[in-house]
Amino acid sequence: MTDPPSWWWAQLGGLPEPRPPLEGDREADVCIVGAGYTGLWTAYELKRAQPELEVVVLEREVAGFGASGRNGGWVLGEVSIGSRMRAAAGDGAIEALERAAQQTVDEVGETCARDAIPCDFVKGGSLTVAQTAPQLARLRTASRGEILDADQATARVRVHGMRGARFTPHCARVQPAKLARGLAAAVERRGATIHERTPAQTLEPHAVRTPHGTVRARWVIRATEGYTAELPGLKRALLPLWSSMIVTEPLDTATWEQIGWQGRETIDDAAHVYCYLQRTADDRIAIGGRGHPYRFGSGTERANGVPDATVRHLRARLARLFPQLRETPIAHAWTGVFGVARDWAASVHCDRQSGMCWAGGYAGEGVAAANLAARTLRDLVLDRDTELTRLPWVAHRPRDWEPEPLRWLAVQAVYGGLRAADAIEDRTGRRSRLARAAAALSGR
Ligand SMILES: Cc1cc2nc3c(=O)[nH]c(=O)nc-3n(C[C@H](O)[C@H](O)[C@H](O)COP(=O)(O)OP(=O)(O)OC[C@H]3O[C@@H](n4cnc5c(N)ncnc54)[C@H](O)[C@@H]3O)c2cc1C
């Protein structure tokens, strides 16, 4: 058996046996490429709305092999919007998108309950913790969430040097691979077909070609997020960014009594290069962060190895938050890739004439956003004029990323700038302007 791509999959005994690949040409109403959350939720929603539709999902590996089976398990009620879309759409439209994203957390929970998708869903909200004065100052200027003082925040979780935190109720925790696995099964129960080990080679109007045959369909939906750069003609559409995670062995009761964290909130810190955490259902801590964020030429090579330096970095971040965990054994480390648009705005597209659709660019906030995108794609494909189809991320068009080596240089400069800003803030206790320059360079 190949190494599981994440601890989430390892916990389930590894990747499941692949479903049968496509065998020869076939016809369908809808052909979806990619069986992560975007592709699977879209298939699910289409079949739920119109059971007679013929829906075929093509997956190069197995369902949930990509970011959907590797992420931090934050079902976060936010969508990556970016300053350009924010300015173009206006306050009312942006508020509608933000509201829809918040409602999606409950939508995911209700769907999982209704369709028997066991995935350790717990809606405990999310805490962004500040350990330095500049971090706290940044939290105070943020528009969303409730600011907790150090005592209130510590009552929830005892983070070392806690200065305060921001709390939002709009977040749940899941075991990501359980969600992907359960969703794939729900898609099949609803009557869609998933062909695994079936790579799409080209996506054209009304046809997807694979080495095993061609699927002809009225609608072709690209749901390949972080891997999109590998498809012909799409090298510069979405930047593949890497994020890495480690998970501890289960912590004992005495350690949990020290730490608190009974509410199962997801947690991140307010550093510029932040880390994100969840308390797992079996009482471990899973923590993720950027590590080496980009590979020259938009590489998405599928090796599972995580550089030692990245593991050391994540261990140090864990110890900075919880010093008592400095020596805690790490059970597993893994990495994964997600997609970022040039203006950091996620978007959903559907061209009625060509039948070509896609969704993605969630910029690391794709667990809930993929569900919202899927319900939006459903309405667009079914030609329904709904609140979802009027949201400002529909048909939003970011420009392409720069060619190499500019792309690589830009990412190095942005992350170098953000890391330096964190170091300056730790050293001086004052906010650094470097971070603003890095954000401007990123186009965020
Ligand atoms: C380490 C990590 C942590 C993250 N943490 C969070 C988090 O806590 N919360 C959050 O909201 N977001 C998080 N994200 C982002 C989130 O996981 C993704 O945005 C989301 O899962 C994207 O889902 P997707 O279905 O669009 O893409 P994916 O899950 O990547 O699925 C794309 C699928 O397409 C398949 N594919 C690619 N090319 C082809 C082809 N040519 N033919 C057929 N199939 C193909 C791939 O094998 C893959 O299965 C994280 C991402 C990573 C990597």
Structure overview:
The protein is α/β, with parallel strands linked by helices and 444 residues long. The radius of gyration is 21 Å and the shape is globular. The protein contains twelve helices and 18 strands. The strands form three sheets. Strands 1, 2, 8, 9, 10, 11, 17 and 18 form an eight-stranded mixed sheet that branches. Strands 5-6-4-13-14-15-12-16 form an eight-stranded mixed sheet. Flavin-adenine dinucleotide binds at residues 33-39, 58-61, 65-68, 70-74, 76, 199-200, 223-227, 231, 243, 245, 276, 288, 336-338, 360, 362, 364-368, 370. The site of flavin-adenine dinucleotide has 44 residues, from helix 2, strand 3, strand 12, strand 16 and helix 10.
Number of strands: 18
State the low-pLDDT regions, or none: none
Average of per-residue pLDDT values: 95
Percentage of residues in helical conformation: 25-40%
From the N-terminal CA to the C-terminal CA, the straight-line distance is: 41 Å
Secondary-structure content class: alpha/beta
Summarize this structure briefly.
This protein is of the alpha/beta class and 444 residues long.
Keywords:
alpha/beta; eight-stranded mixed β-sheet; 21% strand; globular; binds flavin-adenine dinucleotide
